[in-house]
């Protein structure tokens, strides 16, 4: 190749190199042209993907998508925000001052209060009195131990316990019911007066003695030794006597409220709580 042609090719190459170096971006311009160093396949945020797009009219279009795990967490959070006053009674919710709902009404009925469904100052005051009477810490709110005692008291229709009732007679009747329930399942035994077996009056006499008062031996003698009261004024823990057509007494038990009694009824049937099966009854109080 001639020298002139070589020289022309060399000049042309140098010119192209200079032109390319002149057009190369520098500084901030160079940074804009750099490729992202983010590795392909980098995982996106798992919680949510947020997409914002501008609408033609200048507005903003917003799209949010969440993962199934986030949705489940939202559902769980919604469940836990249900007011305690609407939880079921078997769940024994921790009810406090200012709670509302049907479960609060149950507590108020058990405490012999007007059930308005609001856990107010009157409910707190009576609940503290109830807790004190059963030897519980007087917090004024429903905890697990208070639920257990309150449901028992509601079932047996006894409000206050032995540690602080409104009167001595209420305390005595509460003791009677506790002692009566302890003997559930004891076999019937004619003439029995011990835990080996009871007849009807042997059972009532044993229970009353444990509660602090002594009764005569037979059902007729017990009827004579009590103050006769009407069915309307009878309270759980009083005695209930069964009478035959001639007015004589042939059976006795311990009134449990709600047309129920504790008694030792007949051979083959142990001590149990049962319905009062006849209207020919009389009530007595010691």
UniProtKB/TrEMBL annotation:
Q: Where is the NlpC/P60 domain?
A: 170-286
Ranges for region Disordered = 1-44
- What are the entry keywords? Hydrolase, Protease, Thiol protease
Signal sequence region: none
Q: Which GO terms describe its molecular function?
A: cysteine-type peptidase activity
Biological process terms in GO annotation: proteolysis
- Listed Polar residues bias regions: 14-26
> Which family is annotated?
Belongs to the peptidase C40 family.
| The protein, known as | Peptidoglycan endopeptidase
